[in-house]
Specification:
Number of domains: 1
Strand order of the largest sheet: 1-2-3-5-6-7-8-10-11-14-15-17
Largest sheet: 12 strands, antiparallel, barrel
CATH topology: Lipocalin
Strand content: over 45%
Order of helices and strands: EEEEEEEEEEEEEEEEE
Helix content: under 10%
Radius of gyration: 19 Å
Number of helices: 0
CATH superfamily: Autotransporter beta-domain
Shape: globular
Number of strands: 17
């Protein structure tokens, strides 16, 4: 949906490609490595100048490899997310310097259960969805000052129990970012993204690895080759890992495109 306030009737189409991975456990003992490529296809519409409605469909490809080098692969549609963003405060009717908004939404269990050739369910980490209905809510503040803009946001997720008795831990994801736009066609942005989460569990038994805090440094470059088109590329570099157990995350590479109608 972006962070700026929309005009009534605005339609935004966008797609974001991310590549990431992590390793859980000890090398040469019980390590499990996950790698994923994910493309989110999204549409957002503003029926009113203070309201944005959006839906996001993820297309995912995953590979899970354990210490024995056995592999599982899964690909297909993930869990759809629908959200609504309402702008509750702006200091001016036009070209506001201060914006405050709230976000509510839900992630729906639209991903199919993946099975092997023998009909058995694939590993939980290979599955593309959680099989649960997960509500979310958040707040955001944005400030504009000349060529600069600043964003602070926090979004909470409260997962329910889903596939194979799995329940992800409740989490809060935060963003602090500053963007500098010296010209109409391009800008640079530097942010700090954080994720604080409780440990996941399977049928009430907590997982040994995971839960805690993970912080990312998030530089981006944005470019507008034509009116109403924005391209972005960046990386999320984990630099503060306070997760329980043995969890090692890779950087997240990201590319996106957005088109406003």
């Amino acid at each position: 949906m972006g962070t700026e306030q929309p005009f009534s009737g605005r339609l935004r189409l966008s797609s974001t490609l991310r590549m990431w991975g992590h390793t859980v456990g000890r090398d040469n003992e019980d390590a499990m490595r996950l790698r994923e490529a994910r493309m989110d296809v999204a549409a957002a519409y503003a029926p009113l100048p203070w309201l944005f409605l959006a839906a996001t469909l993820p297309l995912q490809a995953r590979e899970v490899r354990d210490v024995s080098l056995a592999r599982e692969r899964g690909w297909g549609v993930g869990d759809v997310e629908v959200t609504a963003k309402a702008f509750l405060f702006q200091d001016k009717a036009f070209s506001a310097d201060h914006l405050f908004s709230v976000l509510v939404g839900v992630k729906l269990p639209t991903a199919p259960e993946l099975r092997g050739e023998d009909g058995t369910l694939l590993n939980l980490d290979t599955q593309l969805g959680s099989g649960s209905v997960d509500p979310l809510a958040g707040v955001a503040y944005q400030h504009f000052r000349g060529s600069w803009s600043f964003l602070a946001s926090a979004t909470g997720f409260l997962p329910t129990r889903g596939i194979q008795g799995f329940r992800a831990g409740a989490s809060v994801r935060t963003t602090l970012a500053a963007q500098y736009q010296p010209a109409n066609r391009w800008a640079v942005r530097l942010g700090f993204d954080g994720r604080l989460e409780a440990a996941a569990d399977i049928n009430g038994e907590k997982e040994e690895n995971g839960g805690g805090f993970l912080g990312y440094a998030s530089p981006d470059v944005l470019f507008s080759p034509a009116t109403d088109v924005v391209l972005a590329a960046g990386v999320r570099v984990p630099f503060l890992n306070m997760l329980r157990g043995r969890v090692s995350s890779t950087p997240i590479a990201m590319m996106s495109v957005a088109y406003d109608l």
